[in-house]
Amino acid sequence: MTAELVRGQNHPLPDTRLELRVSAGHPVVAGATLGDERGRVGGAEWIAHPGAPVRPGVEVPGEAAAEHRIAVDLAALPDAVHRLSLLLALPPGGSGPARFGTAAAPFVTVADPAGAAVATYTITGLDRESAVVALELYRRQGAWKVRAVGQGYEGGLAELLADQGAPAAADLAAAVLDAVAPADAPVPPPLVPETAPADPSSTTAISYSHPGRRPAAPTAGAGAVPPPSEPPSERPSGQPDAPSAESRPAPVAGDASGWSMDERLYNQVWGMFEDLARTVAAYRSARDFADHRLDRAVDQVLADPSTRVGAAGDAARAAARATHEELMGRAQEVLDRDLAQLTAESEVVEPALPVAYARWDNPVWHAYRTPEEPPMAVRLGDLHVPERSALRIPFLVRLPLERGLWVDSGPGRTSAAGLLDEAELRRLALDSAVAHTARLLATHPAGSLTVHVLDPAGGGAAAFAPLVETGVLAGPPARGAAGVTDVLAQLTERVDLLQMAVRGDASEDLPPGFDPARQLLVVHDFPHGFDDRAVTRLRYLADEGPSVGVHLLMVADRADAAAYGPVLDPLWRSLLRLTPVPDDHLADPWVGHAWTYEPPTVPPGSAVLWQVLGQVGEARRRNSG
User: pTM of the prediction?
Assistant: First the structure.
């Protein structure tokens, strides 16, 4: 049975030898890129195009045409290749369309060696784009699948290749288009995509980066792929039959590329994150299509006087509803299949995670020892979608932190926040910040992270007790306006010195006794105790600090600083917002879905946080002694 895919949907491939057929109704250039497991294209030799149509495992046509046949042998691809992307671009010159939105939607078929169609995809929803990634064949846990992508690029082929990490992307794009350009026809420059002004009140995109992967079309100020605005296809949204459990490979922890298990697990979690995002996108798109088709069928019945009433009309409406139920059922079946596979993988991966990636209830913490080297990333909570809230994806943020953290103690938009009063939300926010601080300390080698605390009013004494009593802080929490001023002046001077040393390549000229450790400043109860100069210094640390190892962790309610007006907007935007209760303010960088963020919590009655901080404090004292 042929699977008629919608954007984001995947389907298993029955064979490694395939034929990709393209029908566009107008001339297009067809090409293919070969990517590693991170989706990165290594160079010109990883791109098949009319000027170089044959690459290992793939052969593309040598000219622009309205129809194409691309031969693929996945078994012949180099071992380093984990993705093959089918590219379509509008040729320069000629009388054809300048953007896909003014032409018929391209139609792509994946066929087996016998010529039978395995999957089809109609690329709808394009507008000003002149190049598009139609679909990708990718290897996941040893098996090959096809995924409908449909990601267009207003900047043309150069922007597409740059997004896939190809070096000298503009030159490569020019070479591809030159190979099909008519004689003496100038190649038009790529369009510059429009961007909208950033909106600080909108959903914040998850901006930590995957190695070598960049979002295909970042939204302004957020870095996330916008939600697809694909209109329902005129083709029925057929869903593939679910393979049996026996036909799926058993999940294995660390089943990803990387030099170490730490890196392999990090990349595997990212793969799970992307798979879940695209699986849910396909499911929602299929449901939308089914609803649209039902509405259209009912409208047609009502528009025809001969079927508006009577037995014929009843039969037509019943048939439309039956088709709707069938499409919805098949969409649910595919979703259940993919979620079951991801759940099985999660059940294998979660227990294998190291302390930096593990939840606080993971037994790995009971064997905690201070690390010799910092990890690639740190877990700051969990992410899930409503379709399967029990399936949690670890929220891993790369180290060193590229931006500060902000635990929002203000009232949230979710029902969980609405059930709590202001005092309880503030308490939970501070407890969450202490847990984040403890994890950051625990994942750094002894003496490589120095923590300062600003608690101007002294209201956080109880929450900061684990940090104070275990001796992991640089000194007692700073109190009052004078304490705030002293700490901010010290860290501001540090940033200035380090920036001068970096610019002058004179790191050996830093003052004697200069602390080489990274610095973390935990700010509680902002803006209490801050004057205008202190606020300016805080903004400076937020902007300039991360590049030289000075990081912020703020616990604050934005409304408390409303008197500063828009002056502080850049500060809030520069920080990664976290919440002490579940909240859906984060978006993935592939399809832009809102994900529910769950903060990390220490199990009630557990002493794990005190025990871990005790070892960190002891290691700190040994290191300084």
Answer: 0.67
